[in-house]
Specification:
The chain is an alpha/beta fold and 413 residues long. The protein folds into 4 domains: 4-17 and 176-318, MoaB/Mog-like domain (Molybdenum Cofactor Biosythetic Enzyme, Chain A, 3-Layer(aba) Sandwich), CATH 3.40.980; 20-43 and 141-174, Molybdopterin biosynthesis moea protein, domain 2 (Alpha-Beta Complex), CATH 3.90.105; 48-136, Molybdopterin biosynthesis moeA protein, domain 3, CATH 2.170.190.11; 329-406, Beta Barrel (Beta-clip). The protein is built from 7 helices and 28 strands. The chain has helices spanning 4-13, 157-165, 204-214, 229-239, 259-265, 300-318, 371-376; strands at residues 20-24, 37-38, 48-49, 53-56, 70-78, 92-96, 108-111, 115-117, 122-125, 135-136, 147-149, 170-174, 178-184, 188-189, 200-201, 218-225, 244-248, 269-274, 277-278, 282-288, 291-296, 329-333, 337-338, 344-354, 357-362, 379-383, 389-390, 395-400. β8 (115-117) and β9 form a beta hairpin. The mean pLDDT is 95. Bound molecules: adenosine monophosphate and magnesium ion.
Length: 413
């Protein structure tokens, strides 16, 4: 058996980011930039007012107080979106709105709330204003030629804002992996059918497609391949047109477990592993025509755990991401965990954040077919390969797969 860490390392060595394509900047959300983005113009594009008020020469306000007010002649109005009609010289002011360009000669803006109306449309100022006050400088955010977003950055709403600001409606982003999801088994029936005796619904196809979609991949379900070589060949021939193949079932040592044979036959350097993990021991991995193929175990929980540990990082790497692992946090165990050493265990658990920090409860029902436990779980307790488990109140490593549990929900701020 190989370790989980060895399996991950071997898989990731074979994975390359996909090519870069153009996407509109909203469609780019959650994807990864394939090139640096440079600004062609500065932001702000010119000095402008941060306030509604009066653009003035700051020296005019020297010594201004309630007892000794200064009166300036207002020479014109300057709304946002228009350009100055002339310079501000000593003794004059321009009524300016937020975002309007600073007129030549003006060195500061006094906010309207700090002024009063004088006679003949003049403005009365009763306090000193420093040069530069309420002025947003040309290029203070970024300058023309600056790299404003680096290649490899994930596009979040902040990056969308930046791209819109620099006037870029389309950006180069790594392709989303197109993933073929294949289920195998003579016992499987379609979700719309009432299972006949001996049959069960193909749930893995849906679960794996959902997991892939959660990674930002485009998952396509190819349906059910039966437990014979012809049926598998037929489905895998279609699957080879995708960026990545994920199958479930048929990789154990059962009499009808042909997935690894057929994958091998189709030209893949297949590695068949028993990975020292629980659940999820049998795993086939190979590269067919440059595309990764994962043969996951059939048990519903085994396939989901194996996806999380091996397929998710691979799909994220294909998408150009560098932060590809779920990561772990430490939490205090609220009950005993007892296991047989020798394999890394992923115990479905409920992680909670409370005043004492993170607490994690191992859930009852850890069988690899127990979907109800998965529904209640938000994390895995990770038990190292050679550990026999932990006593209640131990500090353990937890891998959350619902990151919202990490947030403080109350009071909110
Ligand atoms: P296998 O690895 O093919 O022997 O499958 C192991 C177990 O997982 C069996 O009990 C299967 O019935 C079950 N199983 C395999 N594929 C699926 C699937 N697509 N959906 C639900 N259960 C499955
Ligand atoms: Mg099977």
């Amino acid at each position: 058996m190989i370790t989980v860490e060895e399996a991950i390392e071997t898989i990731l060595k074979e994975i390359r980011p996909l090519r870069v394509e153009s996407a509109d900047i909203i469609g780019a959300l959650g994807r990864v930039l394939g090139e640096d983005i440079r600004a062609l113009r500065p932001n702000p594009p010119w000095d402008n007012s941060a306030m509604a008020g009066y653009a003035i020469v700051s020296e005019d306000t020297l010594g201004a107080t309630d007892a000794n007010p200064v009166s300036l002649k207002v020479i014109y109005d300057l709304p946002a979106g228009s350009t100055p009609q002339g310079p501000v010289v000593k003794g004059t002011a321009v009524r300016i709105m937020t975002g309007a360009p600073m007129p030549d000669g003006a060195t500061a803006v006094i906010m309207v709330e700090k002024t009063a109306q004088g006679a003949d449309g003049s403005v009365i100022i009763r306090s000193e204003v420093k040069a530069g006050e309420n002025v947003r400088r040309r290029g203070e955010d970024f300058n023309a030629g600056d790299t404003v977003i680096r290649k490899g950055s994930a596009v979040r709403p902040a990056e969308v804002s930046m791209l819109a600001t620099v006037g870029v409606p389309f950006v180069p982003v790594y392709k989303r992996p197109r993933v073929a999801v294949l289920s195998t088994g003579d016992e499987l029936c379609e979700i719309e059918e009432t299972p006949a005796p001996g049959k069960i619904t193909n749930s893995n196809g849906y679960a794996l497609a959902a997991l892939a979609a959660e990674c930002g991949a485009e998952a396509v379900q190819l349906g059910i391949a039966r437990d014979n070589r012809e049926s598998l060949r037929e489905k895998l021939a279609i699957a080879m047109k995708y960026d990545c193949i994920i199958s479930s079932g048929g990789v154990s040592v059962g009499d009808y477990d042909f997935v690894k044979d057929v994958l091998r036959e189709m030209g893949s350097e297949m590695i068949f592993w028993k990975v020292a993990m629980k659940p999820g021991k049998p795993l086939a991995f190979g590269v067919i025509g440059g595309k990764p193929a994962f043969g996951l175990p059939g048990n519903p929980i085994s396939s989901m755990v194996a996806f999380e540990q091996f397929v998710r990082p691979a799909l994220l790497k294909m998408s150009g991401r560098t932060d590809i692992f779920r990561g772990t946090i430490t939490a205090t165990l609220t009950g005993d965990v007892k296991i047989k050493p020798g394999r890394m265990n992923f115990i479905r658990a409920e992680l909670k954040r409370d005043k004492g920090g993170f607490h994690v409860a191992p859930l009852e029902g850890q069988g690899s077919g127990m979907i109800s436990t998965m529904v209640r779980a938000n994390s895995y307790i990770v038990v190292p390969k050679d550990s026999a488990g932990f006593k209640k109140d131990s500090t353990v490593k937890v891998q959350p797969f619902d990151p919202s549990v990490l947030m403080e929900k109350e009071p909110g701020y």
